Amino acid sequence: MFSLRRTALRRTALRRTARPALIAALLLALTTGFSTEARAANGFLTYRMRDGSDGSVVNPVNGNCYVFDDAATSVTNQTDTTAHVYSGFFCTDFLADVRPTESVVFGGTLGHSVIFG
User: Are 32 and 52 found together in one domain?
Assistant: First the structure.
């Protein structure tokens, strides 16, 4: 009988200390850990089109596909994230990785879209 009473007391004490810890952990997760916002690259990517005009993508969201206004003959990455350039529209047919602060000039195959991250 004494052991049953001791076990019941331990369970009650555990519940009293576990609940506040669980509540604190949930509050912390709700305020910091469950963010659904996508991370954005900071900066801009510029591209030179066939007609000599320039286009740009500013503070792009990582994982989103950005289609250039026209085929790009060169790309300069001034973001803090690697840009993955594709020769196909809608980010198909990988062409080149352009790391932060790098520029790439394309030869025969031109860039049409880009994904960051």
Answer: no
Q: What is the pLDDT of residues 68-110, one digit of tens each?
A: 999 999 999 999 999 999 999 999 999 999 999 999 999 999 9
Q: Write the DSSP symbol of residue 41.
A: -
What is the tens place of the pLDDT at every residue in 52-68? 999 999 999 999 999 99
Can you give the residue range of the structural domain that contains 96?
Answer: 43-116
List, in order, residues 6 or more apart from 76 with CB less than 8 Å away: 45, 46, 47, 98, 102, 103
- Considering the domain architecture, whether residues 32 and 47 belong to the same structural domain is answered as no
Q: Are residue 69 and residue 94 in the same domain, yes or no?
A: yes
How many structural domains comprise the chain? 2
Condensed to tens digits (0 to 9), the pLDDT of residues 10-68 reads: 655 555 666 666 565 555 555 545 444 568 899 999 999 999 999 999 999 999 999 99
How far apart (Å, rounded) are the C-alpha atoms in residues 54 and 93? Answer: 23
Residues 42 and 74 sit within 8 Å (Cβ to Cβ): no
User: CA 13, CA 16: separation in Å to the nearest integer?
Assistant: 5
